[in-house]
Design brief:
The chain has helices at residues 49-57, 64-72, and strands spanning 16-21, 31-39, 44-47. The chain has 87 residues and is an alpha+beta fold. It has one domain (16-86): 2-Layer Sandwich (S16 Ribosomal Protein, Chain: A), CATH 3.30.1320. The protein has a 3-stranded antiparallel β-sheet, covered by helices on one side.
């Protein structure tokens, strides 16, 4: 009589990397630096605040989703008043 093996696979987990990329590269192109991640299932966010502030001061434009995460973390309060202009 043969054995039956049960193989359990992990369900696809959504964990998003927050990266800084050059505007001229593709969306999945090479990133300049990884500045954090977001796990919506565990509601866990890690942000490298000094790196994020560096790129924002250099003129980086966050996407809508990343901008919402940065507002929750109150990153924009740490920027100078002339740097708070985002589209």
């Amino acid at each position: 009589m043969g054995r039956r093996q049960v193989v359990r696979q992990r369900v696809l987990v959504a964990i998003y990397r927050i990266v800084a990329i050059d505007v001229r590269s593709r969306r999945e192109g090479r990133d300049l630096r990884r500045v954090g991640f977001y796990d919506p299932i565990k509601n866990q966010t890690y942000l490298n605040v000094p790196a994020i502030l560096y790129f924002l001061e250099k003129g980086a434009q966050p996407t809508g989703t990343v901008q919402d995460l940065l507002k929750k973390a109150e990153i924009f309060n740490e920027l100078s008043s002339n740097q708070k202009k985002f589209n």
